[in-house]
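To make this tangible, this section ends with a sequence with its structure tokens:
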Amino acid sequence: MSPAGRVDPYPTYERLRAHGPVVQAGPVFYVVTGYAEADAILRDARFGVMDDALRDQFMPGWRESPAVLSISRSMLRTNPPDHSRMRRLAAGAFTPRRIAAMRGVVEAQADALIDAMLAAGRGGAPVDFMAAFAYPLPVGVICALLGVPAADRPLFRRWATDLTGVLEPEITPDELAVADRGAAELRAYFSELVAARRRVPADDLTTALVQAHDADGERLSGDELLANLIVLLVAGFETTTNLLGNGLVALLGHPAAAAALREHPEFAPGYVDELLRYDSPVQLTSRMSTAPSRHGGVDLPPESWIIVMLGAANRDPGRFPEPARFDPWRPQVHPLSFGAGPHYCLGAALARLEAQVAFPLLLRRLPELALAGRPERRVRLTLRGFATLPVAPGREAAPVTVAGPPPGAAGPTP
């Protein structure tokens, strides 16, 4: 939980792992570092997210916090049947067919952002990759789904950064006040957007959720409407922004792997899964047990609080040989970065698509792309990423026809 531990948690994960895949860290507090154990717990119906009764026990007065209230009323922090009810209402925007149809939109946005990076970096000037590409690409995509006007998109980075402090396993009163400020601004924004969509409906996810609420408040309450719009927005870009930043640093640190992806963009699915495993944009999630169970040789009594360390599970040597090595040729990676079970990330396929488009395009169009200074990590554990990532775009590559793989070549498996 220290600043140094949040910036680089991996050594601590290995010290925890030495005590076993499931470690008791307090009277009702357990930490999971094993891949098989993490996957099993996330899929086990005896474990759920913290509900209102448990929040009353662990965090009295939480209803006075706009940040905690916003998260708690969304599908992110509710259990079945409420979780299932809310998830079904939004799932139509994330079907495989709809995601596949968005590839052209993602490619066009990524190309435009690279054009802007080249212009900003002309003459050797450094460009902050996080501000110039990693944030605007996913926020543009999710805002298009939600129907958020393009002019409003720059507002969300600070609001989301403030709000997501509440997802940390520990938060100080000062940090909670900052999170509350972000939540209040987001609630005010979406209250206005909801009113606008009531007046003039549009073909977007916000309109669909507003109409579901207005047709039947039992399907989606007013608080749930705002909470889910906030979470869909924030989750729609925060994790992908971190994936793009973490992934670019990994690729620049492994030039042979980057060169292979530059030549063969069809290998991108395997690369993206390995990048998700190697430096997960989401490092942990939590569950509460509702019935006795046994995982990793440890008995977990009811009302145990389980911290599932996704970043540690993704580097479990029992599942991944040489886990600290970046290897895009690993077979059947299946990282836990998007979770598993009922709470598996609704937008996982969209995040993967954005990364699968972005990395080959960046490497092909910017063959001289390089770090231009020391990247600065955000001091966060749950959502792991960079605050700033200075790069030198270099010169743009001459247009070429991308060759297909040589006969008999096999790329990384998705």
